[in-house]
């Protein structure tokens, strides 16, 4: 091989796609609370990057998930469930994240529960702008006992909105997720990738640490704790360690609105708070490939969710 040939093909053999063949696009995932948007995002990306729980309003930020396959780079934006009640400063922030995410995208995944369409779904549908293709993702297909029963519902949905395509899926089924990705690929513009081939999210590890702690908080308190609780990362520092290749020290504050909520989080003799910390540490160690030391504190800040300045200070838009 002569030197000129080497310059012309620097990426030969490394699997890289030439820019001329690359496709890349932004795909917004929208829907009312608790239709499985975050679970779907994690399945589409192939790794957990967005927290999930049965509690409504678990997702509070726009989370970007990235998946690169062949010539295609999919940039998924998971959004909070659109809030139709309780006009607090927090909920206004959540809705701003939703409307911002759908303003300039290549395609929208409008996620509903298969066989169901409620007034809250209709309010999200009203937000979608003409000119942007919308895929109706009928999620939780595994909960539909007789598939034949869903055909009339699908016809009814096509009458509600000129959906580009209707894709029934279960986010738990890899073949369904693959089929949805194949559909999404048809809407990706031909353009260079925005992110590196191995990147999974544009969010920092510090942000993900706060999200993981919040997920464990909600999972371990269940319905006892109102959703107006949050987590603030006070310290996220990487330190040298003679024993570990990577060591990260984290300090976080769980913010609740009442003294009674603080007692719920701490639990009997501090056992619940300890378990929240342990489960968060274990997941973060897997996520970051590091040894993690985490300290948790609980503070009461009454009315924070309806205080715009405090909502912003806690990291919401």
TrEMBL record:
The keyword Amino-acid biosynthesis does not apply. It holds the Pfam family KH_2. GO terms for molecular function: GTP binding; GTPase activity; ribosomal small subunit binding; small ribosomal subunit rRNA binding. GTP binds at residues 31-38, 78-82, 139-142. One of its GO terms (biological process) is ribosomal small subunit assembly. Residues 31-38 are annotated as: G1. GO terms for cellular component: cytosol; plasma membrane. It is found in: Cytoplasm; Cell membrane. Residues 57-61 are annotated as: G2. Residues 78-81 are annotated as: G3. Residues 169-171 are annotated as: G5. Residues 23-190 form the Era-type G domain. Keywords: Cell membrane, Cytoplasm, GTP-binding, Membrane, Nucleotide-binding, Ribosome biogenesis, RNA-binding, rRNA-binding. Its main location: cytoplasm. It is a peripheral membrane protein. The keyword Acetylation does not apply. Residues 249-302 form the KH type-2 domain. Residues 139-142 are annotated as: G4. PANTHER family: GTPASE ERA, GTPASE ERA, MITOCHONDRIAL. Monomer. An essential GTPase that binds both GDP and GTP, with rapid nucleotide exchange. Plays a role in 16S rRNA processing and 30S ribosomal subunit biogenesis and possibly also in cell cycle regulation and energy metabolism. Belongs to the TRAFAC class TrmE-Era-EngA-EngB-Septin-like GTPase superfamily. Era GTPase family. This is GTPase Era. It comes from Ramlibacter humi.
